[in-house]
Amino acid sequence: MNNFQEQNAIRIIKANNGFMRTNEAIKNHIHPRIFYRLRDNGTLEQISYGLYKLKTNKISNPDFITIALRVPDGVICLISALAFHNLTTQVPHKIWIAIKRGTSRPKVKYPPIHTNQFSGQSFSSGIEKHTFNKIPVKIYSPEKTLADCFKFRNKIGMSIVLEALHFYRERKNFNPSKLMKYAKICRVANIMKPYVESII
Questions:
Q1: Quick one: how far is CA 193 from the chain centroid?
Q2: Three-class SS state of 129
Q3: pLDDT tens sequence across 176-193
Q4: Contacts 24+ apart (CB under 8 A), 183-188
Q5: pTM surpassing 0.85?
Q6: How many angstroms separate the CA atoms of 197 and 200, rounded?
Q7: Residues pairing with 131 in the sheet
Q8: Are 25 and 32 in contact (CB under 8 A)?
């Protein structure tokens, strides 16, 4: 009977893209005893507090997936978005995420996160969805990220901002008008304009 219950639990977790939260297991009629047995025998691996994956489930960008599952309304931003778009030489030690102003800061112990509150169009504009292991992850576009970096230049450092702008200039799809569109949304158009004009 127990073996049948374990196999049934594995089938349910596989149907959930190989990931399962503790509370989701209960909602899916997986008894906690069975769920924790799968953890204890190595079938499940814990990747964050209350979040597990099947050991056989090979994943790319595990930190991004964890954030997408733990903070579904959050958006990968600033240095983490720069790193994803290959616009920086920085290796972020935390996952930078944007949350809507007025919402509670997420309680995520691992991976370590750095939250930033955005409001209005500054939060909702420029979001791209990238899929890892069938899990959609929201990340700001390169242009939106650059505008955000100018806005938060005192927090992340102007050298990082200028390096990112230089890398973006080298791309075939370099688009100054798109940059300035997001600069206006983020209210940094007057600050960004001289820098963008100098590299056109």
A1: 28
A2: strand
A3: 999 999 999 999 999 999
A4: 183/147, 183/150, 185/121, 185/122, 185/125, 185/126, 185/144, 185/147, 186/122, 186/144, 186/147, 186/148, 186/150, 186/151, 187/122, 187/151, 188/147, 188/150, 188/151
A5: no
A6: 5
A7: 136
A8: yes
